[in-house]
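Lab manual, section 2.4: Encoding a predicted structure.

Procedure: take the sequence of the chain (329 residues), apply the prediction step described in section 2.3, and record the output as structure tokens. A sample record is shown.
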Amino acid sequence: MSKAPRIRTLTATQSAWLTATLGTPRPLYYAGGADDAAGLPAHVRAASAIRRRGTRLAIVQDDVNAIAVLDPSTNTARPLLLPADTTGTRMFDKAHDNKKRKLDLEACVTLPDGRLVALGSGSSPYRERFVIIAADAAGSVRIVEAGALYAELRVHAEGRGAELNIEGAVVHGDSVRLLQRGNGKHGGAPWNAILDLALEEFLDWLEDPKGRLTIQRILDVDLGAIKGVPVGFSDATVTADGRMAFLACAEDSADALSDGPVLICRFGWLDAGDSAAVMTDVLDADGRPTRLKLEGIEASADGGPTFDVVADMDRPEVPSLIARLTVLG
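Recorded output:
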């Protein structure tokens, strides 16, 4: 029998000295335009996570079976195709009547060897898969069934009266940290948490995903609420100096499967040792709180005070956005 995880609780607080200002958002388009053969539009229509891939940025899409690989020098992307579903489709939405079949890739980690691992949210049985992208230039793709891990995660969610919804993930020291998002107003208790797996065990499991991964620690985090709408994790990143930064949004949705308007988006720091978490509202350049749904964040490669962030518009006909986020304090 596996050892029960160590559980701690933490309440995030608003900071009086921290600021997070969003630069001008830019729409994301593919350099080659629409690809009818692959079934992709001319624009990057979803953005749920962002990670550095060499000199490029890899943008994960939750309802499209393609990774958008962005060249920051030209702000154009190329698609790295994931396998189509059994019907030959790579796009999933209400119009295609296939939204329930999407992989719902909501999080991504960069492994020490340069591979990327995109993770399904686990909000339904179909969304319990990992996509592993090789570090080589070709970026070969392997899909791993991870039902056993999600089943264990779901036990902890259901034990708190919550829906499982993994929205972020990072490699932090010797751990892989999964961020559980507190869901909508009618989706059970708004459980935000960071669940830790041992990195070495995770790497071994990826090569032979038949065994069981052990959750070592769980940090339950109270992120508060706005007008009765819970604030929930949307992504995280680790800076060059080893600090963990996170994004959290209050999305007025019914549950983990639904979208809704964003009331607030916040940037936060988690202190070393998980001893404290501080947050501040993300402001537009004009000083007003942004209503963009910021779903992905990646630290600057040079260790500076800026981050790359992506916004998912939740409208398939509209390009997703990328912007620079400047954090001071």
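Check your result against the sample. The chain is about 5% helix and 45% strand.
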